[in-house]
């Protein structure tokens, strides 16, 4: 039997993920600033955030961004950074079993660390609507993409981000993640 997959479940997931909005805005805007410094224009940075929507992988890609871009290097860096999502996705199999492939795999495109943790917590508390994950993920991706665009524009006004320590953001992100785990 397939789990429910409703607009109400997606809305619940989005509301649950709303608490993350301030931190997503900060990291997304920082990515936008650093993307501009790395040479990406506003459209490139925004499209990258909308399509990839994986902060750690995007920050890592900027570290190896050069002219000309080594797409193989960027691809391997992104693959290495996002390999953990294979395990995250596997934990959702019992919940998603029976869903139509488009719903299951479409939801996994919007799978991030934080909305996965929220969805698993809520599932363990009795939330059975599988659209919960995609609701939180859609909200997070929209905020990430919009804040990337804002950060890119702000970066043009800001000047050199190293004056403010923004180039240290990737290291700080991993340090705080390691301490939290």
Q: Main attributes?
A:
181 residues; 0% strand
In words, what does this structure look like?
The radius of gyration is 17 Å and the shape is elongated. It has helices spanning 7-17, 21-37, 42-51, 55-63, 71-82, 84-96, 101-109, 113-124, 131-158, 169-180. Helix 1 packs across helix 9, helix 3 runs antiparallel to helix 9 (131-158) and helix 4 (55-63) packs antiparallel against helix 5 (71-82). The chain has 181 residues and is mainly α. It contains ten helices and no strands. The N and C termini lie far apart (35 Å).
Based on helices, strands and strand pairing, what is the structural class? mainly alpha
Q: Which regions are unreliable across 5 or more consecutive residues at pLDDT < 50?
A: none
Overall residue-averaged pLDDT value: 87
Largest sheet, if any?
A: none
Mass-distribution shape: elongated
SSE topology sketch:
Layout: H1 7-17, H2 21-37, H3 42-51, H4 55-63, H5 71-82, H6 84-96, H7 101-109, H8 113-124, H9 131-158, H10 169-180
Helix pairs in contact: 1-9, 2-3, 2-4, 2-9, 3-9, 4-5, 6-8, 7-9, 8-9
Task: Give a quick rundown of the structure.
It contains 10 helices and no strands.
């Amino acid at each position: 039997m397939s789990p429910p997959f409703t607009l109400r479940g997606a809305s619940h997931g989005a509301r649950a993920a709303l608490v993350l909005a301030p931190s997503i805005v900060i990291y997304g805007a920082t990515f936008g600033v650093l993307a501009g410094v790395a040479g990406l224009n506003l459209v490139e940075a925004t499209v990258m955030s909308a399509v990839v929507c994986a902060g750690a992988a995007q920050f890592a890609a900027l570290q190896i961004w050069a002219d000309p871009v080594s797409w193989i290097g960027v691809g391997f860096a992104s693959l290495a950074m996002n390999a953990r999502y294979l395990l995250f996705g596997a934990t959702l199999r019992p919940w998603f079993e029976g869903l139509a492939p488009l719903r299951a795999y479409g939801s996994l495109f919007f799978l991030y660390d934080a909305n996965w943790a929220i969805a698993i917590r809520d599932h363990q508390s009795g939330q059975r609507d599988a659209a919960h994950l995609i609701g939180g993920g859609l909200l997070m991706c929209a905020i990430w993409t919009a804040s990337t665009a804002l950060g890119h524009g702000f970066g043009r006004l800001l000047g050199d981000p190293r004056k403010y320590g923004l180039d240290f953001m990737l290291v700080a992100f991993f340090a705080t993640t390691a301490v939290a785990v």
